[in-house]
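## tool: complex_structure
## caller: assistant
## args:
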Amino acid sequence: MSHYEYATPENFLGLEGECATYDGAQVVVLPIPYEATVSFGQGARSGPRAIIHASRQVELYDREFDCEMAYDYGVHTLPALAPHAAGPEAMVDAIRACAREHLAAGKMLVGLGGEHSISSGFARAIHDIHGDFVLVQIDAHSDLRDSYDGSPYSHASVARRIADLGAPILQFGIRSICLEEMDYIRATPDTTRVWFNEEVHAGGHLAELSARITGKKVFLTIDVDGFDPSIIPATGTPEPHGLTWVQVLDIVKTVCRNSTVVAFDCVELAPIPGMHASEFITAKLVYKVINHIMHQRTA
Ligand SMILES: [Mn+2]
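## result:
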């Protein structure tokens, strides 16, 4: 057997043993390579596989917590959820049914997209299992159109579909928006709060974020295009003047310290062949976010 080359398992972080089994893991990663309603650059369907592959090279030791945290909480990676041929609404239902099963089992659920419409399925499952929750969204786009390209389940309408569930919507880094969305934001100031990119760059947003989520359940969704494209260029609709690594993590830390994060997803990575920085940075981000969530859960 020693003649055979050793290969790290093709799961999130490349974990082996008890901590990678379903029963032995508190965190479950669900890859959703779904891409049907994208408007511009293609490739989000390759996102989950690229993130998982890159994650095997992410250092498990996290200096911030002074331990190899993944071994403490355990991470099980599920097989990828197959795209539903009947269209976006059927896909949302399929994601909802799958997510509900793992939330009901008490797992911290992590979705890897895929296009942003997958978050609608997660949100419905969270609503089914946990009831009221707040959406915290990091994104270049507010995704608040009532429909886009004729579909209410488009990735460009995902936040609106989640608002339909009664969830307050808190958004950070928005810098591409249409008039319909601006009108909606102005009409719903109590339930929709948007910090545009220049407001995040100016600072001062964390105190209000904290006040709006304290004691509540949160669904955290990170569209990688929320980052500046100089950090993560591999996404379908990159926008300039995005958030930095530190700005995103400050928002994540504030969310984790002041609320209970019940699910998290990371979407819209569209890998550029031969340019692996984006998937590695995304993999590191996902591990970092999980560490903050699980640190708070076990504190
Ligand atoms: Mn976006």
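## assistant note: The CA atoms of residues 227 and 244 lie 6 Å apart. The mean pLDDT is 96. Handing back to user.
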